[in-house]
């Protein structure tokens, strides 16, 4: 919004009312921040309380007076926390934001992400799911989109934002509360971001990556992955590949999936000895 104009626009050749004033920039910022705090609600699953305290709870927007956060411990799936929060968010928020416990949201994040959501809705009124990192297309034509700090390394993809995508990383994603979308408990703790995107698309909705820079401090290794983690991901992948076999090929931020079994085959190359 441009607030540097000397006054409101003239209609025809008539005079501007002498009491009209441009809205001060700080008032616009306060209005957007207030709207974000009213319109956004966050939810996370907690497996390690010390990580939650060190990372997510250190975010300026989650200090007293900031955004609302529902933290769930001892969940059997991401869906257990998300779906409960979605049911509770009806009439309380416009967007439910799933965020990992190891994410840090920088100062002003809520205002910037709220503005990005409004811009996304102006472009795609059917926007149902939005995230900060994702992939459009698959195979050699796959395009990555997003701007995040990942394990201390900046990832700034070339795709202009906002960008329509077919997959979203689970580190942070927002779902419209009135969309009736739910996470699938059968997926456990993997592939639920892309599952939400595909659910939205099946209903004629849009998923997009927006500007919403944040820090992701995951300690999951890229290689020598513990066997228990590999098996968990592989089991979720089998469910996902069966459910969406009619949509293959697909690409996520971690995998290229051309046919059933591709995820397990890739995981066999990175499992710890």
List the helices and strands and how they pair.
Elements: H1 25-39, E1 40-46, H2 49-54, E2 68-73, H3 78-89, E3 95-99, E4 103-104, H4 109-123, E5 127-131, E6 133-136, E7 143-150, E8 153-156, E9 163-164, E10 167-168, E11 172-176, H5 192-202, E12 206-209, E13 215-216, H6 227-243, E14 250-251, E15 256-257, H7 262-267
Parallel strand pairs: 1-2, 1-3, 5-12, 7-13
Antiparallel strand pairs: 3-11, 4-13, 5-11, 6-7, 6-10, 7-8, 9-12, 14-15
Helix pairs in contact: 1-4
CATH topology name of the largest domain: Spore Coat Polysaccharide Biosynthesis Protein SpsA, Chain A
Strand order, largest beta sheet: 2-1-3-11-5-12-9
Low-confidence stretches: 1-23
CATH architecture of the largest domain: Alpha-Beta Complex
Mean pLDDT over the residues: 90
Broad structural category: alpha/beta
Radius of gyration: 20 Å
Q: How is the main sheet built? A: 7 strands, mixed
Number of helices: 7
In angstroms, what separates the terminal alpha carbons? 55 Å
Shape summary: globular
* Helical residue percent band: 25-40%
Oligomer: single chain
Which CATH C-level class of the largest domain is it? Answer: Alpha Beta
CATH homologous superfamily label of the largest domain: Spore Coat Polysaccharide Biosynthesis Protein SpsA, Chain A
Number of domains: 2
Number of strands: 15
């Amino acid at each position: 919004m441009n607030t540097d104009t000397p006054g409101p626009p003239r209609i025809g050749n008539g005079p501007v009312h002498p009491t009209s004033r441009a809205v001060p920039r700080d008032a616009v910022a306060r209005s957007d921040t207030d709207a974000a705090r009213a319109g956004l609600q966050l939810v996370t699953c907690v497996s390690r309380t010390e990580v939650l305290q060190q990372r997510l709870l250190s975010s300026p927007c989650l200090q007293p007076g900031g955004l609302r956060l529902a933290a769930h411990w001892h969940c059997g799936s991401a869906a257990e926390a998300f779906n409960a929060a979605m049911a509770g968010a009806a009439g309380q928020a416009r967007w439910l934001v799933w965020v990992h416990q190891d994410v840090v949201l920088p100062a002003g994040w809520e205002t910037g992400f709220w503005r990005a959501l409004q811009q996304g809705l102006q472009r795609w009124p059917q926007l149902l799911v939005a995230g900060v990192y994702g992939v459009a297309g698959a195979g050699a034509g796959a395009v990555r989109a997003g701007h995040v700090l990942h394990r201390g390394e900046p990832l700034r993809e070339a795709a202009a934002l906002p960008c329509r995508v077919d997959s979203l990383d689970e580190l942070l994603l927002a779902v419209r509360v009135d969309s009736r979308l739910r996470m699938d408990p059968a997926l456990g703790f993997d592939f639920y971001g892309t599952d939400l995107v595909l659910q939205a698309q099946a209903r004629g909705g849009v998923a997009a990556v927006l500007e919403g820079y944040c820090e992701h401090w995951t300690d999951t290794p890229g290689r020598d992955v513990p066997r228990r983690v590999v098996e968990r991901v592989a089991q979720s992948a089998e469910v996902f590949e069966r459910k969406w076999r009619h949509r293959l090929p697909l690409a996520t931020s971690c995998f290229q999936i051309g046919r059933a079994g591709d995820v397990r085959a890739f995981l066999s190359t990175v499992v710890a000895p």
